[in-house]
Each structure stands twice: as C-alpha cells, then as structure tokens.
Amino acid sequence: MRLHAEFLFDFIGFRCLCVVILKFDRRRIVNNEPMTETDKTPPDVIVADRQLIVCQGLGSLVAQIPEVRLGPFATDMASLRKALSERPGPVIVVLGVRLADADLARALDMLRRDYARAMVVVVAEESEFAFIRSAIKAGAHGICMMDQILTNLPRILGHLIEGHSILPIEVLKRLSGEQTDALTRREHEILGLLVDGLTNFQISARLGLSENTIKYYLKAIYQKLDVNSRGGAIAKYVAGTY
User: Fold this and answer.
1) Which residues contact 187 (CB under 8 A, 6 or more apart)?
2) What is the CA radius of gyration of the chain?
3) Is the pTM of this model over 0.85?
4) Which Gene Ontology terms cover its molecular function (predicted)?
C-alpha cells in the first residue's frame, strides 16, 4: 500500500472522525491496483457517530461528493453492523470518535476483525494526537487532520479508492520524533476508559479486573505520565504529550 504525506489547509468544526473505505476485490487490494472504469461502483457512505447532528453535518458534506453515494447514519455498533451487512459493494464509513456504545478503539477493532478488507483513515484535531497514534497502531491506513476535511475529503477519498494510503507530513514527523511508547496495551485501554468518564468500579467491571488492580494500573500510569490526578492523566493522554 503506497503512503502519501500531505499538507492540510481548511478547517471545519467537527470532532475527531474516521473514514473507512471497504473494498471487495482482494486482488486489487493486495497488489495496490486501481479500479477500472467497469468496476468503479460508487461507494455508499455510512456516517456513524453517537450524535445524530454530527452525522447530519458530515452527511451534508458527503452528499456533495459525486464519486460516492450517501448511505444511512449509524449511532451505535448494531446500526453500523447492520448498515455494513446490507451493502455488499464498496462502502465508506465516516466514523466519529465515539458511538453511543463504543469508543474509537473498539469500533476500529470491530472493523479490523470483522471487515478485514477495510481501509481506515482517521480525521482528528492536532490536540487529539492520542487518537491518531492509537488509530495507526490499530491498522488505520491514513490520517486526515481536522482542518483538511472540508476541501480535501473528496480528494482523500479518491486516493483511497485508487488504493493509496494518506498520512499528513506533520503526523509522520511527530511520530518519527517520538520515543517508544512507554504505556502498555492495558494502560492504553484503561486511559481510554478514563477519557470516557468511567469510574474505577466501572472500569474494573468492563475489563473483568478487581478495583485494586485498576488502582495499581492507575498508579503506574500516573508515574509514567508524570501526573498526580485523573484529570492530568486524561489531558496528557488526549493531547499525546507523553
């Protein structure tokens, strides 16, 4: 998969989003071959976010892109799965950071596990670098910064349809300048739940661990992030400044 770095320009006030493109010709995906005119079926676009108003805002933008067809909106995992299962052809999913019952990591895990042919592009603000880093680790094929979405989304989708992955140059520079991630996968998981506002008890129930174990993990996280509170850990984690 070829990787393109791009500079970004315009701004639109949506939250961190993802664009997922599903391609159903494995030979073309593996060999990075562009689609021919005869098999270029316009992809359906499913817009998914926990807030319907965000779906509607993105939908109004997607509806202006002639290369795709606007599909249904999804606000939770069940409606997203339903929308995907009803569309055997090419599909693009515009995915918010959180659905009503899942965060970005869980949604990406589902797409990677159950829709292995998907190409994933994360759209995020610079202040949400933790989501960018996590998305790349989860197998995202590209990153689109938030200030790019208004004018560059059509071009980015075109690149993806042709088999090209996209990463903005500033993300590549930041990632290349970082040291190895000091946080473990479990610590990332717990921090993600902290960002979602879960209590220690709720985190322990979600992960099947004792509250004492969660407290142990939090102590280790605070030490690694050089903070002494949940708020400090959340702020540093979301900004990616650790």
Assistant:
1) 217, 220, 221, 224
2) 18
3) no
4) DNA binding
26-76 pLDDT, tens digit per residue, is 334 334 445 454 456 788 888 888 889 888 988 888 888 888 889 999 899
The total domain count for the chain is: 2
First to last CA, the chain: 30
Provide the residue range defining the domain that includes 203.
185-239
CB 72 within 8 A of CB 83: yes
Indicate whether 142 and 206 sit together in one domain.
no
Residue 94, amino acid:
V
**CATH number of the domain residue 200 falls in:** 1.10.10.10
Q: Which amino acid is at 37?
A: E
Same-domain check for residues 170 and 105: yes
Q: Say yes or no: 159 and 189 in one domain.
A: no
Q: Are strands 164-168 and 2-6 parallel, antiparallel or unpaired?
A: parallel
Residue 94 sits in a domain of what CATH number?
A: 3.40.50.2300
Cα angle, residue 224 at apex, residues 220 and 230 outer, rounded to 5°: 70
Distances (CA, A) of 159 to 13, 40, 64, 104, 146: 23, 13, 17, 23, 18
